[in-house]
Write the structure tokens for this entry.
Amino acid sequence: MQLFTSKTIPWIIGVTALLALISLFPGILLNATESPDAAPAMVESIEPALPASKDRAMDLEAVLAPAVPAPIVVDSLTAVSHSAIPQRVSSQAAPATVSISPEEDWNPIKSQHTFTITVNEEGGAPASGVEVELILNRFGEAVGDIVSVGGENPRKVDNTFGRVTTDGDGQATLTITATRVGDTDVTAYVPAIEDADAHKVFAVKHWVDLKADFPGDASNLVGTDHPIAVRVTRVSDDAPLANVEVLYTITDNDPAAKINDSSDASVVANTDADGWSRVVLRQDEPITGDNQVAIEIRHESGATLNHTITKDWQAPSLAVDKSGPDNLGLLKDGEYAVTVTNNGNTTASGVVLTDELPEGLTFISSTPPADSAEGSLVTWQLGDIGPEESVTITMALSATAVGEQVNLARVFSSEGFTGEDELLTDVIAGSLALTKTASAEVNLGDVIDYEITVTNDGQGALTNVVINDTPAAGTALTPADAPAQWTVALLDAGSTETFNFSATARETGSLTNTVEASSNEGATASAEATTLVVTSDVTVAKTVNLAEVLLGRTAEYTITVTNNGDGDATGVSVVDSMPEGLEVVSSEPTASVGNAGTLEWTIDALPAGRSTIFTVRARTVAGGTHTNTVTVTDRGFADTAQAQVTALTPSISLDKTGSAGVYIGGQREYTITATNNGEADLTGVTITDTIPAGMSFVSADSDGVASDAGDTVTWNIGGLAVGASAAVNVTLQGKAAGEVTNQASATSNEGAEATASFDITILPTPGASLSIVDSSDPLAVGEEGAYNITVLNQSEDSPITNVQVTVTIPSELEIIRSEGAEVAGNQVTFGIIASLASEQEQVFTIAVRAVEAGDVVAKATMTYAEFSLPVSADEGTTIINK
């Protein structure tokens, strides 16, 4: 590293000798069991100070140099790490690298300097909780002591050795000081890093008897010169240092500036006999912004001290905002405001505000009062206005002339900064508004009442306002000599005058009356009012809710009486005649009953365009079509309306088809057909099939639903038009022999219903099997054998009767015996079995003897009453010679 290559050969030899000496005396390393508290701690005698940046002036005379204890010799860094204090690494991944900053630097003696040690994991993530050993290498002319260590669990063993654990950012700090000129060599060692080439880093601090008093940041008014002065002295006796090179460099040259008017960015100015170096920073143009100047002191010893200052160029920025009414009535007063704001970053001095009034505006007063108001120019002395500060002037102005008035406000400061704003106010005269109202609607011959209102809704007065009214055609003034013109000498802004008159309607229709007004100032207005002169026209309409209704059901008639005219009707008569075949149930509103049984109502008032509704409910008591007539009379004019209803008779028929016979356990499908043979469409048609005892439900059409008990099946057919049919299917199974009747029914919402019956015979289920099996096969001539014949009733629920079994034995066999049977030649007939219960069997045996070799077949035949054909079975047997 550069740290070592910059040392002299004797220094390197000294280091080598020291390391050799340490290796010869391993026994004198720091006692591993000794508490860190027992070691001398410099922090007990010196209050730790915050680390001072190398480029800032430091007043170090108040920092006392601590007593330096005798150095502790150790045989190796690893020995100290692993014997003195146990290692602790809390980072999840192992640390991989360590760095120290700065690696080389210069500081004045009697000041403090802080190094930052950073430990990272592989990949660069901070390694927290890692032990770092901090060592000042004491040999030769080395100087410096540890002031403090910073991080987690800091432990200063003595003035040359300490330990610390990295914080959450993987960092720790070491602060050192020195009271005399020389170098401090620093080693930062991380035992947890296994790589010997990466587990330690080095730094050197050069202590010099040199200090500088740097200037601080400053602010100046734009365009002014800014002097920069630096004083360089010794730390030991504060004596000035002459002829020290000081380099000034503009590092941020926006806005553009120069040092000592030099075109170069960097300028050198050596210190004088008093240690002072002076230059001047000057802007090219007076513009706000800031410049940064880097100052570097270059001592002949090679030491450098650095500092950067910021120069902020400031200026006031005056803005004027004038507000007031956009419009102002003639001879009216308006309130205006002028706000002066310093948007700059320095104070504006001696600010003066002037307001130049146009010809049509006159100054009345202001807050605060104006310093002068001569003619159209008003002036205020505002004094100084600081940055971001504002001053507001409010004033009252009077409008004296009509037209657009431009008001200009200007502001000036003693530094020459200005601002202005102008406001346009339109001075306007009064405005004329006219309204007219009239009776909205009257009957022919009625009086129409009119009202005229004239208003000055502008901002100025009006004079000699003349109002002229023109009566509408079809009307006549009432009385005939009533005035139709009025004059108002003066109508102030906001004032109103009202005039009334009347006229009689002589014609029907929409009658419009117009009024006009004007003033000397040229203001005009007009208005009109329209009245509808109307008469009545009454008509009647009658509807029935059902064109067809079931006999005995109720129909509802609606009678609508409408005034189609444009005038109200009064005393309207309504008479409803009810025909035979209909019987009144109710009326709404309740009608009076006339001598002929008519329903009668009177409408006291029926406004134009309005209707009145009457409702009559009547029951059909006879079939056929019935016509109902209603008559309405108004002012001697009559109108009639009729409605018809037809009474219908509902009817439905039902038919069931299918097989009349079924075996027990057998299944049959039955079809039920419902037909609408009445006069009315049916709704809510339902078919229900009642399953008789002895049968059970198997399935039905997709719409059929069986009851939980399985004794009924229901289909919701819905609507059924006249003449239409609907068929459903159900599958039933026989359960017990006998005669049963299957009953079906159909109903509808209209009350139509029907039934259908079907007789079914349930037969027992026949089923018998016959088998013959020989006992020995083959059979030798002379040997005896036997045939076993088995009869089985396979039915699960019925017996078989009159069972007869006959067996034919081949001639090659001799029948020896057969109990309960008759033998005739080679044929054996067993006695009749009167009844064989379900799932029961009967076995017959025939004993035989072989008399001739050969292949033979014995044949058994069975008959029974429940089956019309004989059932047979064969058994083959082989006979051999002995």
